[in-house]
């Protein structure tokens, strides 16, 4: 949950996805994943998140996490016809399937 006193009403757990991002051909994320001291790449599954958050809000979230030392924030939408988003092009179909499972 990322906190020693998580608000369990929302059940938004951090999911470790570093092994998938290590194989990414996105240089920024791949380098973070390979850095043994700063290699933290987590995902949060937000059910119906694309109906809740606008692109502008997602950009504000990125600004927010940078204040705490994160080098970035990215999102992938889960649609009926598959995963969508700017990061999808950096992963193989197999890795996208694994992201979707997690």
Poorly predicted residue ranges: none
Give the DSSP E fraction (strand runs of 2 or more residues).
5-15%
| Biggest β-sheet: strands ordered side by side in the sheet | 1-2
Shape: globular
Structural class: alpha+beta
Number of structural units classed as domains: 1
Helix fraction by DSSP (H/I, runs of at least 4): 25-40%
Report the biggest beta sheet as strand number plus sense, adding barrel if it closes: 2 strands, antiparallel
Order of helices and strands: EHHEHHEEH
Compute the separation of the termini in Å.
15 Å
Total strand segments: 4
> DSSP helix count?
5
Mean pLDDT: 85
Gyration radius (Cα, Å) is 14 Å
EC number: 6.1.1.12
Keywords: ATP-binding, Ligase, Nucleotide-binding, Protein biosynthesis
GO cellular component, one term: cytoplasm
GO molecular function, one term: aspartate-tRNA ligase activity
Short summary of the structure?
The chain is of the alpha+beta class.
Task: Walk me through what this model shows.
The protein is of the alpha+beta class and 102 residues long. The protein has one domain (14-101). Helices cover 37% and strands 12% of the residues. The protein is built from five helices and four strands, in the order E-H-H-E-H-H-E-E-H. It has helices at residues 18-22, 27-34, 49-52, 55-66, 93-101; strands at 14-16, 42-44, 77-79, 82-84. A two-stranded antiparallel sheet has the order 1-2. A two-stranded antiparallel sheet has the order 3-4. Strand 3 and strand 4 form a beta hairpin. The longest helix is centred in the middle third of the chain and has 12 residues, at 55-66. The model has no long low-confidence stretch (mean pLDDT 85).
């Amino acid at each position: 949950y990322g906190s020693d006193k998580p608000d369990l009403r929302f059940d938004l757990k951090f999911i470790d996805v570093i092994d998938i991002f290590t194989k990414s051909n996105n240089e920024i994320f791949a380098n973070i994943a390979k850095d043994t001291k700063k290699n933290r790449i987590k995902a949060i599954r937000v059910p119906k998140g694309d109906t809740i958050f606008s692109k502008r809000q997602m950009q504000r979230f990125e600004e927010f996490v940078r204040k705490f030392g994160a080098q970035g924030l990215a999102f992938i939408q889960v649609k009926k016809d598959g995963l969508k988003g700017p990061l999808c092009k950096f992963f193989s179909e197999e890795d996208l399937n694994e992201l979707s499972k997690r």
